Amino acid sequence: MSKQVVVVGGGVIGLLTAFNLAARVDQVVVCDQGEVGRESSWAGGGIVSPLYPWRYSPAVTALAHWSQDFYPQLGERLFASTGIDPEVHTTGLYWLDLDDEAEALAWAAREGRPLSAVDTSAAYDAVPVLGPGFKRAIFMAGVANVRNPRLVKALKAALQALPNVTLREHCPISGFVQQAGRVTGVQTAEGVLAADEVVLSAGAWSGDLLRTLGLALPVEPVKGQMILFKCAEDFLPSMVLAKGRYAIPRRDGHILVGSTLEHAGYDKTPTEDALASLKASAIELLPQLKDAAVVAHWAGLRPGSPEGVPYIGPVPGHEGLWLNCGHYRNGLVLAPASCQLFSDLLTGARPVIDPAPYAPAGRLG
Ligand SMILES: Cc1cc2nc3c(=O)[nH]c(=O)nc-3n(C[C@H](O)[C@H](O)[C@H](O)COP(=O)(O)OP(=O)(O)OC[C@H]3O[C@@H](n4cnc5c(N)ncnc54)[C@H](O)[C@@H]3O)c2cc1C
């Protein structure tokens, strides 16, 4: 297909969108206001599952399941082509003392997911460093985490190797160019960049950009803080989650503990309160972390959207403008399916998933 597509925003969504489109269109340009892959997609934890998958709509579940199956091959493909390993690390996940355990198990039975109740003694045997006092546990085998900073680094390297892709970093887009009701480009500080199609994948900033066209997209920044420990490689064999807080083991023994959920505009400053609260959660989950140093503490801005259902598809009334944004707490897990569906829609291919629940039509003010 003969087209130049401009992708606004180079987080995991914009980068993977560009990667998929590069095989199907002539030229792809990715513009990011900073360096690509340094915002939410870098800051996230990288669990390849929603935190409580049974609490989401079938729309989120459909994207999550497709992506979960696809992640290992995506990781292998990127590693083989770039030498950067996104480390898709399959550890399984224990949920402890859940209030809605029955709903979780019913959902898993319906969806055919490998989630089951386990004796707490079995959970303590499997994860000997788990804190005392947990009364109930459920376990889902096969859940992975991805080392998201490496995932975006690998995607960047893969795109840099493609002759028909241009990455324009430090290139903020301030608005869209329109001619006769059609979006024909974007406004950069150096002038207009023409495009046959424009994709808005600017994460938490997407709503601001769409507002320049008088459209209300309910995507807003939701701050999340995380802390990082470094332990022995075999310290934590599985991911564990209790009371909304989780610990994620990387292959090399780094343990991420997250996260907060704060409505603080675009402020990304890590705070002492969150540090204390995350440390307390970490010690409750894994008491040995009391003696471990926090080696990093950061915040990122999730692209918050109603019910966490992303916007994927064309913007009605503005031909040439497309959305792939609003992935809220699940942008890393949902990225492969979202970006496959997106490139199917833009190129007129048969969509891998029913696109109806994600269509912007009827969801913009
Ligand atoms: C603490 C925390 C933990 C998380 N844990 C998980 C998890 O375990 N699993 C999971 O699936 N998800 C998780 N997430 C959510 C996930 O990180 C996000 O949903 C996902 O990264 C969103 O990707 P994105 O590409 O839409 O946004 P971003 O990664 O934020 O990318 C948007 C890009 O757009 C650029 N941009 C913005 N405005 C402009 C402009 N005007 N012009 C040009 N460029 C612009 C930005 O610079 C940025 O690079 C977590 C998030 C946080 C903060």
Overall outline: globular
CATH fold type of the largest domain: FAD/NAD(P)-binding domain
CATH superfamily of the largest domain: FAD/NAD(P)-binding domain
CATH C-level of the largest domain: Alpha Beta
Structural class determined from secondary elements: alpha/beta
Q: What is the number of helical segments per DSSP (H or I, 4+ residues)?
A: 9
Q: What's the structural domain tally? A: 2
Beta-strand residue fraction: 25-35%
Helix content: 25-40%
Overview of the structural elements:
This protein is α/β, with parallel strands linked by helices and 365 residues long. It has two domains: 165 residues, 3-Layer(bba) Sandwich (FAD/NAD(P)-binding domain), CATH 3.50.50; 134 residues, D-Amino Acid Oxidase, subunit A, domain 2 (D-Amino Acid Oxidase, Chain A, domain 2). The chain has nine helices and 19 strands. Strands 5-6-4-14-15-16-13-17 form an eight-stranded mixed beta sheet, with helices on both faces. A six-stranded mixed beta sheet has the order 8-2-1-12-19-18. α1 runs parallel beside α9. The mean pLDDT is 97. The protein binds flavin-adenine dinucleotide (FAD). Flavin-adenine dinucleotide binds next to α1, α2, β13, β17 and α9.
Keyword list:
six-stranded mixed β-sheet, 365 residues, 2 domains, eight-stranded mixed β-sheet, binds flavin-adenine dinucleotide, alpha/beta, 26% strand, FAD/NAD(P)-binding domain
